[in-house]
Amino acid sequence: MTTNYRHIVPVLLISVLAGWAAGCTDLSDYDRERMEDAISDSLLSVTESRTINMDLIEDGHRIVSVHSPYALTFTRDGETETELQDSVHVTVLDTLGGVKTTVVSKSARYLGRKSEFHFKDDVVVETDEGRRLFTDYLEWSQRDQTIHSPDFVIIVTRSDSITGYGLDGTDDLQDYRLSEVTGEFELESSPASASDSDADSDSESAYETD
C-alpha cells in the first residue's frame, strides 16, 4: 500500500510570496534567504509506502532487489531519497539471477541520484563465497560496487577473522582495506574440512593497512 503526501504550495501562493519578498525593500538579506528556503521547502513531496519490494537495474545487467516493511520517499528538484525502516533486506544478483551478496540491517537510506545505500544498525553483509561483514554503519555504492565504513567492523571468512576500523573495499569482500586493525584470528576447522579451508585461504584476498 502506498500513500502520497504532497506538501506543495499552490503556484499562485508561491508567486504571491515571491513577489512580496521582492517588493519589500526593508527585508534583510537573512530574511530574504529564509523566505527563499521556505518556498523551496514547500515543494518537497513525501511518499509513504508499506511492504516495499523493488528492483534496481543498472545497464540492464546488475540487479538489486530491495525489501522493507516501511519506507518514506522524499522528492525535491527531481532528486529522491528513500528512508527504509523496520528491517531492510537487499539482495545483489548477477546477470544470470544468482545471488552474489545480501545485506541486512534495521534501517537504510537510498540516495537515488548517487545510487547509494547507507545502512544503519546491526548491518550484516554475506557473500556467495561465505565472507561476512558485521558493523553498525555501511555505505554501499551500487554504481561503483564498493563499500565504506568509518565504524568498527568484523570480517569473517571460512578460515579466519579480522576486526578494525575504517573499511574500504569491494562489495563482494574480495578486496578490502582497514585503516586500523584491532585483532585477527584463525577459525578452527575439522579435519574433514581442512583441505577445503586450505583451498579457500588461497583464494582469499589479503587485507591492507595504512
Number of helices: 3
Largest sheet, in brief, is:
6 strands, antiparallel, barrel
Question: H/E element string?
Answer: EHHEEEEEEEEEEEHE
- Count of DSSP strands: 13
Overall structural class, as computed from helix and strand content, comes to: alpha+beta
* The top level CATH class name of the largest domain: Mainly Beta
Fraction of residues in H or I helices: 10-25%
- Output the radius of gyration: 23 Å
Distance between the termini: 48 Å
Protein described:
By secondary structure, the protein is α+β, with helices and mostly antiparallel strands. The chain contains 3 helices and 13 strands. It folds into 2 domains: 37 residues; 165 residues, Lipopolysaccharide (LPS) transport protein A like domain (lipopolysaccharide transport protein A fold), CATH 2.60.450.10. Helix 1 packs antiparallel against helix 2. The protein is globular. The N terminus and C terminus are likely disordered. It holds the Pfam family LptC. This is LPS export ABC transporter periplasmic protein LptC. One of its GO terms (molecular function) is lipopolysaccharide transmembrane transporter activity. It comes from Natronogracilivirga saccharolytica.
Report a brief summary of the structure.
The protein is an alpha+beta fold and 210 residues long. The chain contains three helices and 13 strands; from the N terminus they run E-H-H-E-E-E-E-E-E-E-E-E-E-E-H-E.
Keywords:
210 residues; alpha+beta; lipopolysaccharide transport protein A fold; 2 domains; 6-stranded antiparallel beta barrel; 13 strands; 19% helix; 55% strand; disordered N terminus; disordered C terminus
